[in-house]
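INTERNAL AUDIT FORM
Audit reference: QA-55
Scope: verify that the stored structure record matches its stored sequence.
Auditor: D.O.
Record contents follow.
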Amino acid sequence: MDVKLVVDGKETDLNEFVSKILTGTVIGAVTSLRGVSNNWKEIEIKVKR
């Protein structure tokens, strides 16, 4: 899995632990939603304040 975290346009390095936590949490939440296929190719999340 390729995981990127971009904050205010700057990509932030992730260590293996954080990458695994983010990946597992996002995939688990998204695939539990109705209508989301298990054959997804990319998940994108944007958070704005």
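Auditor finding: record pair retrieved intact. Residues 1-49 form one domain.
Action required: none
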